[in-house]
Amino acid sequence: MRVAVAGGTGLIGTMVVAELTAAGHAPVVLSRSRGVDLTTGRGLAAALAGCDAVVDVTNVTTMSRKVSVDFFGAVARNLLAAGVAAGVDHVVVLSIVGVDEVDLGYYLGKREQEDLVANGPLPWTVLRATQFHEFPESLLGSGVGPFVPVPRMRSRPVAGIEVARALVDLVEKPAVGHARPIAGPEELWMADMARRYVRARGLRRVLVPIRLPGAAGRAMATGGLLPTGPFTQGVQTFAEHLERLAAARSA
């Protein structure tokens, strides 16, 4: 099967591409580095020619509602329109557990993406996942000097590779709409995860737990990003993730 991967050069995208290849499929990476601009549609029609399905794992780093809604909205619209023209018969989208419970600007963009796909012209599947094990690392770039703000939030962190495998499994099957979400095997506070990551890396950072203001902050701190119903439980723990990082660095 020929499968286009939107955002195929990102964290999860590279894993999805590798898993598709291992499963005998032919992945097609959709990214600017491959001549495709998903926000404008440039190069998309040619890239989707002959593709059977699309996996959308695109991302944008922002807390702005406008930036997020504009980005995810444009990408979804372009993928759907080009997918119809190319004869694609399944679009699989990666989203976030609790995205409709927490009113952050970024999550509002993901809601826009989900709505467009769910009400669009192609058979669809949305997989919601909790935060990845790699999430604390991404927070370190938001600090000022050694000080790093860490949101007060409860999570069930999941291994990125397990999410990638779940996406590949879904793209091989008929569309199901909202699939059972995936979450990790244990509940952790994000600040604790960040402390453990910094300690394991031997970094010198001062982590500053903060509660975001308003209803969004309350929801994050009280479990709004945790699954509330049945979910697929990942296997790898955060401790095992840190062990693998240590092994990879010493190899």
Q: What are its keywords?
A:
single chain, 251 residues, alpha/beta, Rossmann fold, 6-stranded parallel β-sheet, two-stranded parallel sheet, 9 helices, 12 strands, 41% helix, 18% strand, globular
Question: What is the compact description of this entry?
Answer:
The protein is α/β, with parallel strands linked by helices and 251 residues long. Helices cover 41% and strands 18% of the residues.
Write up this protein.
With 251 residues, the protein is an alpha/beta fold. It has a single domain, classed as NAD(P)-binding Rossmann-like Domain (Rossmann fold, 3-Layer(aba) Sandwich), CATH 3.40.50.720. 41% of the residues lie in helices and 18% in strands. The strands form four sheets. The protein has a six-stranded parallel β-sheet with strand order 2-1-3-4-5-8, with helices on both faces. A two-stranded parallel ribbon has the order 6-11. The chain is globular and about 50 Å long. The two termini are 35 Å apart.
Write the layout of secondary structure elements.
Layout: E1 2-6, H1 11-22, E2 26-30, H2 44-48, E3 53-56, H3 65-86, E4 91-96, H4 105-118, E5 124-129, H5 135-139, E6 147-151, E7 154-155, H6 160-171, E8 177-178, E9 182-183, E10 188-189, H7 190-201, E11 206-210, H8 214-221, E12 232-233, H9 238-250
Parallel strand pairs: 1-2, 1-3, 3-4, 4-5, 5-8, 6-11, 9-12
Antiparallel strand pairs: 7-10
Helix pairs in contact: 1-6, 3-4
Strand order of the largest sheet: 2-1-3-4-5-8
Identify the overall geometry. globular
Low-confidence stretches: none
Q: Class, according to the CATH hierarchy?
A: Alpha Beta
- H/E element string? EHEHEHEHEHEEHEEEHEHEH
The total number of structural domains is 1
* CATH topology value: Rossmann fold
What is the radius of gyration?
18 Å
Main sheet properties: 6 strands, parallel
Question: Any guess at the CATH architecture?
Answer: 3-Layer(aba) Sandwich
